[in-house]
């Protein structure tokens, strides 16, 4: 669903504060992060002007062409200023952040104060899964957001293919849950494409969209496919929680640690699968497969 210039709204005259609103300008919160930089890059590619927010504009590392603004969604510092003049805002909260609900509330209020026409919130698939506190926070944040901005569009992605891409390219998938658990991993590029459509006003106001990848694959399947596509061995193995805590998770503490351990337990029990049909409809084509993503890396 490429965003054609014709699909964009015509230039708007003023925001709610009477300040000029630049047509085709969108704000992406957390544009330095994994998700935000993908959304910002896709928006730029679609011809939109992109304001990226970061707490540290002097050190901001993100797609070339982003206009950086300082903003902190925890304190509210700089938010309204960063959003004023944008037609649409993409709202991303850092992963497993304990204040997700409060941050979403603050950004939604600031977007309204700034006269932003459209708000799009990056939630998660299965936000009501009570096994994971960070999913429940996203469910609460969706409710709070709808209280402030009933017309907001909510995207609920499954886990990304990109989470395991680097490890696959390095030849070793190691996860702290069983390697036979199934996942509908989704390409972050596909998510960004839908995000741009939402920012451009192409999705129904007030709608919610589950974004899942086209296949249910276990980590063993991912490794087998990567071995075939990359033409070199890629292994899959489970590590214990203790090994994860003394290795990749060594710097994770507090609420984030509790959240991630609960997530690993849920993944171990059931994996994380969702219906790929809504994403297929939104894209107007089948979502990107793991094979296609890996093939791009080899071409
Ligand atoms: N990874 C997945 O598979 C997946 C799946 C579904 C949903 N999600 C959700 O996607 C979201 C983003 O995850 P991610 O991995 O892309 O995040 P990330 O790479 O860790 O990026 C987080 C961003 O948040 C910004 N940030 C941190 N503290 C902030 C604050 N106080 N105020 C404003 N911005 C702040 C950071 O910007 P600065 O440091 O530059 O300020 C950074 O750009 C999370 O909510 C996650 O739950 C992820």
TrEMBL record:
Residues 24-246 form the NmrA-like domain. Residues 1-21 are annotated as: Disordered. SUPFAM superfamilies: NAD(P)-binding Rossmann-fold domains (SSF51735). Pfam families: NmrA. PANTHER family: PRESTALK A DIFFERENTIATION PROTEIN A, PTHR43162. This is NAD(P)H-binding protein. It comes from Ornithinimicrobium pratense.
